[in-house]
Structure formats: structure tokens, C-alpha cells
Amino acid sequence: MSTPERLVQILTNKGALRPGSPWADSVAEVPRELFLPGVIEADDRTIDRTHTPKRWAWAVYADLPLITQINEGQDLGEDAYQRPTSSSSMPTIMLQMLDLLDTREGQRVFEAGAGTGYNAAWLCHRLGSDYVTTMDVDPVVAKQAEANLAKAGFTPRALCGNAENGTPDGGPYDRTIATFTVADIPYAWVEQTIDGGRIVAPWGGGIYHYSFAVLDVHDGRASGRFVGYPAFMRTRTQLPQGGRQRDFYHHEDDGTLSRTHVSPREISGDADALFWIDTTVRDAWHRVGEADDGSEEATLWLFSADRSSWATAEYVPGQTEYEVEQYGPRCLWDEVEAAYQKWVDRGRPERDRAGLTVTREGQHVWLDNEDNSVATVPAALRIQS
């Protein structure tokens, strides 16, 4: 059985759709199939509705994220890195995000990132189309989302533009929600959200980007904490964080060697450490390369988003000193090690003790309470259009 009822059953069995959830009717009555193209990617496999209709329907009503666009819809050739740029999010994560949004009847919602339109459809089903505005930066995606919504009988205000700039009119909104990850919360979202309203957005840089920022707006500022472990595509307005190693690793004979007593494993294997490092080491990402010879050795790779700098830290079991190599204008390992040491000196706090405050002047991360600011988050590098 591959129907909305099957999706309801799956989400209920997993505890994602709780008894009495205000979203139960939306999940049951909005067909996900209306929001998906004939060719999708699920679990790293391409599924074509024409060739395997049962498999396609199974994926549609499974609790899976489904990729609907690669490389912004451009054919960059077979050798190009295949970067997912639009998708239908995992329903479990959609429910978690909407629960965090705490939307009530009669409230107006701005959605940054229309995607397929499926999330906006849930909002329209519950609140009414007149209460929902959705925006996507990609004109093709925005147009298709609007068409998908119309097929399902919904007519929200659907716009094309950079949602991080907010909307030129139509506000203020009671709730603002983003369906893509941002490294910094746009102040435009604070401005367009009513006093007492809420913003929910996947947040983080390239080192760690698995958090929802749940921020309440008061007196022109937004403040709140981090929860959950979502994985969303990044905004297109900021430099990509990730890719093929060969596209970022260059001048391999020109690196500077040094040694460290900080274990690369202690950093890469600790989500709390990575979160706190990410609050100050921005516009960079990491990857762990595991040795395949049974040695349990590994390499922690660090790359700058602008591709100018890289670093490696070599882990060998049983050692207390590790080889480091760095290249470029940024000494990425030095940045990561310094941030890690600050985290250790603070007593290794968990991510759940962190909070974020956004003002017109910028944003800062605090520990335990707003008065204890520990990091001013730098604005992310933007793609120049």
C-alpha cells in the first residue's frame, strides 16, 4: 500500500505523528505524489515512475527525503559534482519543524524555500491558503511549486526571489520558517515577524549544520535555543560547504607541516565539539577519510569554502602526537584547534546549553543565558551575483 494513509501509519508508528497532532489531517489528506516529478532520488538511487511505478509510489509514501533537482537543474556534464539543490524533505523532519513552529489557526506564515510545495501545502491545509506565503530563489522551482499547490487545491501567495531578504510587502508574519540551512539568521526575518512571533530555521556553517534554531521575537530581536538534528540543503546565496575532495585539494606539495597533541578523532567524533567549533570557524567544512587497511588510521580533512585553503590532521591509534599539514591564507587546523581548546576550557558544554540571539547589529551565541555571550558569529561569505 502506497498512499497518504500508509505515510500516516509509518509516522504514527515512529512516534513522529502523535495522537491529537494538529498535522494528522494534513498528512492524511494532502497527496505527496502531487508534489513530485516522475524521476526522483531516494537512498542514492534514481527512481523513474515510468519504468518502476510501484517503486516510485513506495518511495513517495515512505519516510524518506526525496531529491528532485541536481545542480540547480543545469547539466554540467557527467564529470561534474552532483550537488542536490532541491528536494521533498523527510516527513518526520517536516513534522518536527512544524511542531517547533507552534503554529495556531489564524496565524500568518512566511516560508523561505518553497521546494516542491509539499510543506506549504500542509500549512495551507491547516491554516488556509490566505495565511501562507512561500518563496523560492529558483524561478523554475518556484513556478513548479505553485503549480503543484494548485493541483492539490491550494493557492498561497507564491513568490520567486531571495527569501533571505524577506518580502517587500505582505508582512508582518506570526511565524517564519526556512526549509534550507543558513549560517546566519537574516535580520529581515526578525523585522517581518511580529513581536511575540517565532522563527524556525536549520542553522549552522560547514563544520556542523545539524541544528534547528528556534527563536522568539521581542522588541526587534530574536533569541532562542538549538534543538533537533536536521540535515537540510544549504542556502544558495552562500558559498557551498562540501564537494569533491579533488576540487578543493591542490598545491599538495606546498603545505606546511607541524604536529599537535589534540587528537583529530576527539574532534571529528564529538558532535558537541563540532557544534561549538562551528560557531567561530566559518566558511569551511570537514571530511574524515578512514583507512581501508584495518589500521584504524584516519585523516581529518579541512577545506575553506572559497577553495583557497586546506589542512589535514593524521590520526594513528595509540599515538599522543599527530601530524598536521596546512596550506593557504587560512591555517584551518590552527583555527579548529583554538576553537576546540576554548570549548574544553569551558568544561565541554553540550550543544543544548547554547542559545542564539539575533539583532540588527549581528548574531551571537551564548552559553546557558543571554548575558553569557561566548561567540560573535561572522556573516557567511555570499555568492556574488
UniProtKB/TrEMBL annotation:
EC number: 2.1.1.77
Pfam families the UniProt entry points to: PCMT
Gene3D superfamilies per record: Vaccinia Virus protein VP39 (3.40.50.150)
Subcellular location: Cytoplasm
Primary localization class, coarse: cytoplasm
Domain of life: Bacteria
InterPro entries cross-referenced by the UniProt entry: PCMT, SAM-dependent_MTases_sf
Coiled coil feature spans: none
Record keywords: Cytoplasm, Methyltransferase, S-adenosyl-L-methionine, Transferase
Family label: Belongs to the methyltransferase superfamily. L-isoaspartyl/D-aspartyl protein methyltransferase family.
PANTHER family named in the record: PROTEIN-L-ISOASPARTATE O-METHYLTRANSFERASE, PROTEIN-L-ISOASPARTATE(D-ASPARTATE) O-METHYLTRANSFERASE
Protein name: Protein-L-isoaspartate O-methyltransferase
The organism of origin for this protein: Streptomyces blastmyceticus
